[in-house]
Amino acid sequence: MATLHGSIAAARGSVRLEFYIVEPDATGTAVRDALADAADRGVAVRVLVDALGTTALPSGFWRPVTASGGEVKIFNPLTSRRLPVRDHRKLVVVDDELAIVGGFNLSDDYAGDGVASGWADCGLVMRGTAVAGLARSFDLMSALCDTTQPRAMMARLGKGQRPPAETIAPGTQLLLSGPGRKPNAFQRLLRDDVARAQAVRFVSAYFLPGFQMRRLLRRAAKRGAQVQVIVPGKSDVALSQRAARHLYTGLLRAGVEIWEYEPQVLHTKLFLVDGAVYVGSSNLDTRSLHINHELMIRLTDPEVVAGGEALFADLLGRSRRIDPANWRASRSWWEKLRERWAFWILSQVDPYVTRWLVLGPR
Q: Are 22 and 54 in contact (CB under 8 A)?
């Protein structure tokens, strides 16, 4: 958060800020005030936030920004037909020179080190030629926010085009996604990487990979690759945690290591596969992969990859490994049933209801 505040305070020409959740607490208010101060000194401030993720904000929360000349847009107003599809992206671009991407939101939940206090999450500060691509991405989402037709806005679930990976700098690919049944660029590249990897390290706050990814993880482990997955031991969404635990048995049987992070709520999205690292807003679950708008970055710069590996090692050192021999016996039949139901709801019911609400009966 210190980097975010400092960047806004130092802005000379423009600030683009896009978040899913903004809370009216100390963190959210401090960022709002920094944006208002930037607008007061002539900086072009543009804010894009999700309607569902900002329901806690009081009326007039953004008035200091708009009164100073800043622009605030609310993505996807809360109507029944539009409700399921959200802007889950997290992006800040300052002066077209610096960008911040990650999984964190503007909330006191993230105020801490993720160990002694606060949720465990990560972000990446980017400079150089890649920033221009991220700025364009914001502009496209801002334009999409102006669209009033649900079908145009959501690109027809299951029939719309899913943007291909875009190289925005050497060794840096921008992976954008929105509603759709087909694999998005993040899924396609991650699958290709896992299919030939010797080391796979995932950190996923909400872990519900599809059948093909689960098969790739099992195959990787069986051919001798080290496959390690860190998931929350403490989660803010109990249903998601139960759904993830429904998958443990099959993955453990194949040799996949599963670890649960214990100190605080885990909200990190970090995927390491051999010489590549993925960072951004997307979880490995149905909602991120097929429903929400997400932003991921794939990087192969050795220094960045080394930083991702160091973060993974730190999280792993604070996690408890799930014992394959004792996992099945560690839960009651009732808990196993709840896990099965949670998996069914999130993997089947959620996407079906979304398609029905957005597109209507066929």
A: yes
